[in-house]
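Researcher: Here's a chain I'd like modeled. Treat it as a single chain, no partners, no ligands.
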Amino acid sequence: MTTKQLIKQIRIKKSFLCIGLDVDMEKIPKVLMDSEDPIFEFNKGIIDATHFLAVAYKPNTAFYEAYGIKGWIALQKTIQYINDNYPEIFTIADAKRGDIGNTSSMYAKAFFEDLNFDSVTVAPYMGKDSIEPFLAFEDKHTILLVLTSNEGAFDFQTLTADAIPLYQKVLATSKTWQNAQNLMYVVGATKAEYFTEIRKIVPDSFLLVPGVGAQGGSLSEVCKYGMNDNVGLLVNSSRAIIYASNGADFAEAAREEAFKIQNEMKNILANY
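Model: Modeled as a single isolated chain. Structure tokens:
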């Protein structure tokens, strides 16, 4: 999916909601446990109930890798289901990969070719030769971790080097990499006060924003400081939506929670 196609979907759906498919077998409805693939059946229910409210889905791969080959198969089936039935949806592999040379190339092949995700999250710590193999894929997006929503983000990401915060150096340096137009950036909703400075460096890029909802981030604050002329935001919500109910009505409950967020986004877009 190209950036233009993503922007078009945001305008059509009046939504920039990304739903995190972080499936914990201990939390999904017991009614699904007798099925051949409970993880996939859970995801399928959530997707079918919310696809018209969301523009993106983001499975965190750890929640699938934890269950071995069965989990990986469920992930593969989930992305195939989205691509086959809802091709207008932007898919994000929240894998946080990043290594040098051929290793990054293999990671990129795994997510972009084998699984056919639209994008993947990567860590920038090892520099450009760990990121450019991802950026080499045409019409695929590499989402760089810049300023995350966790408490430990302050251990390194906001430290200064030559009087410039490290996260700002990451942003500025990344713009010099080959095919940098394919970059997006992770910026946590709990760091809303930093969005103004971030937008000075990457005014036109999309930002993937976790941390709204369960982690306490404010959607209105994120939009106030982070939105650009093309919206430029994918705001993620996971637990608040997918675990709205642990009963047989889990999909309907997820739809209701997603609708609440989408409706708030619709109002923000109408007044922007």
